[in-house]
Amino acid sequence: MAPEFEREKHIAYIQSLDTRHDELEYWLSEHLRLAGVYWGVTALDIMGAKDALPRDEMIKYVKSCQHDNGGFGANPGHDPHILYTLYAVQILFTQDALQEVDANLITKYVLSLQDTATGAVKGDLMGDTFDTRFVYSAMSCLSILGKLSEFDVDKSVNYIDQCKNYDGGYGMVPGAESHAGQIFTCLAALAIANRLDLVDRDLLSWWLCERQLLSGGLNGRPEKLPDVCYSWWVLSSLAILGRLDWIDRDKLREFILEAQDTEMGGVADRKGDMVDVFHTVFGIAGLSLLGFENLEPVNPVYCLRESVVSRLPK
Ligand code: GRG
After folding, report:
1. 198: which DSSP letter?
2. Residues of the domain holding 93
3. How many CB atoms lie within 10 A of CB 167?
4. Over its length of 314 residues, how does the chain's per-residue pLDDT go in tens digits?
5. Is residue 1 one of the residues assigned to a domain?
6. Does the global pTM surpass 0.85?
7. Is residue 2 part of a domain?
8. Which residue of 31, 182, 284, 287 is most buried, as measured by CB atoms within 10 A?
9. Ligand 1: which atom is nearest the Cα of residue 38?
10. CA nearest ligand 1 atom 6, residue
11. Which atom of ligand 1 sits closest to the CA of residue 229?
């Protein structure tokens, strides 16, 4: 039988993350700090505990990661990047604090990352490469800011279409192998653009549901190990395609619950491994998509609580 969902322990685990300044791991993960705040806040929000972290301190910290060009870095002093800019906007949106930043300045930064000839988007202005993760990040960020109309959506939709493979999936760049993480980013971007008509729904849904292994867990591509985080990347994709019932929900639930640390809270990539906040949010978000544990509904496109997404500018 599956262990119980340890809601209170997961809340305490996330609350403890910013107090572990004497641990090497805390300093080794500095380059991910703002991502960690987004993962923690989102996990808490899905568990109905958004206020478990100090709001004012958090908003002040997020704002301290912003640069003069509008982009946000992973921590104060870290170079701006599209991923951290998205996480900053998501956190501020969740906290109802977007009015505290200059949306036009952030928009200018995001627009500067799009290659207007191809529609591809790079991660930063310092030499990071093109990646479908960044197309999604730009579109999600701009749509939350109500600025998507300033972006060449058609060009980026065309770029994503070029990343489509013979198996119905999508990769990081044109010609790259299908991977569940990249599939989420491409489907979610197409959903934001209202262009899901370009997707080979049946073929891709088959590829996605074949990610479930006998253990109940999902992998990200054929022949790979199952990992709790694919409970988000695969399930959100199936949710966007309206095919969540193509996987065995009970077996996946058991796989996720077995990956919990039932003493200290948090969720690992799989049973017996060390927990981290990345696997914690995507395990909990997966359980929400599956409709288990009385969690708040999560939006499969934005990976934010549905009630937050319902506030999106029309
Ligand atoms: C707001 C939810 C949200 C996302 C922002 C960063 C991003 C946009 C999307 C990431 C999509 C992605 C590529 C996820 C996969 C992450 C992952 C576990 C990669 C591991 O890749 P490999 O090759 O793992 O090491 P496998 O499982 O294939 O062995």
Report:
1. G
2. 7-309
3. 16
4. 889 999 999 999 999 998 877 777 777 777 888 999 999 999 999 999 999 999 999 999 999 999 999 999 999 999 999 999 999 999 999 999 999 999 999 999 999 999 999 999 999 999 889 999 999 999 999 999 999 999 999 999 999 999 999 999 999 999 999 999 999 999 999 999 999 999 999 999 999 999 999 999 999 999 999 999 999 999 999 999 999 999 999 999 999 999 999 999 999 999 999 999 999 999 999 999 999 999 999 999 999 999 999 999 87
5. no
6. yes
7. no
8. 284
9. 1
10. 133
11. 18
